[in-house]
């Protein structure tokens, strides 16, 4: 008996597409804030899609209500992926500490 594998799709900005491919996510769809709703609607109706990961800043700009999308019957789950823009806005100190620790090679105590 063969089991059909369903895919995970990332909806991201064009400039972040290569990042997701580098970490091994092959199904990346790029969209602008005006295209997000249409793209997600198409993916929600795709029987081969198991989960849709949307960059958080892109979802915010598009006014996407993830909870409402997940309440609309069965289908792929929609979830947010924190990206640099949101992380930087919500906790700039943590962002820069993490960035500095990558450059220096160890965590800084500031």
Can you put this structure into words, describing what you see?
There is one protein chain. The protein is of the alpha/beta class and 110 residues long. The protein has helices at 17-22, 36-44, 56-62, 66-71, 84-90, 92-104, and strands spanning 7-12, 28-30, 49-55, 77-81. A four-stranded parallel β-sheet has the order 2-1-3-4. β1, α1 (17-22) and β2 form a beta-alpha-beta unit. α5 packs across α6 (92-104). The N and C termini lie far apart (56 Å).
Mean pLDDT: 81
Total number of helical segments?
6
Strand content: 15-25%
Low-confidence stretches: none
**Which overall shape is indicated by the principal axes computed on the Cα atoms?**
globular
| N-to-C CA distance | 56 Å
Secondary structure class reads alpha/beta
Number of strands: 4
The helicity comes to: 40-55%
The value of Rg in angstroms is: 16 Å
Quaternary class: single chain
How is the main sheet built?
Answer: 4 strands, parallel
Task: Name the helix and strand elements from N-terminus to C-terminus, one letter apiece.
Answer: EHEHEHHEHH
How do the strands line up in the largest sheet?
2-1-3-4
Short description:
This protein is α/β, with parallel strands linked by helices. The protein has six helices and four strands; from the N terminus they run E-H-E-H-E-H-H-E-H-H.
Write the layout of secondary structure elements.
Elements: E1 7-12, H1 17-22, E2 28-30, H2 36-44, E3 49-55, H3 56-62, H4 66-71, E4 77-81, H5 84-90, H6 92-104
Parallel strand pairs: 1-2, 1-3, 3-4
Helix pairs in contact: 5-6
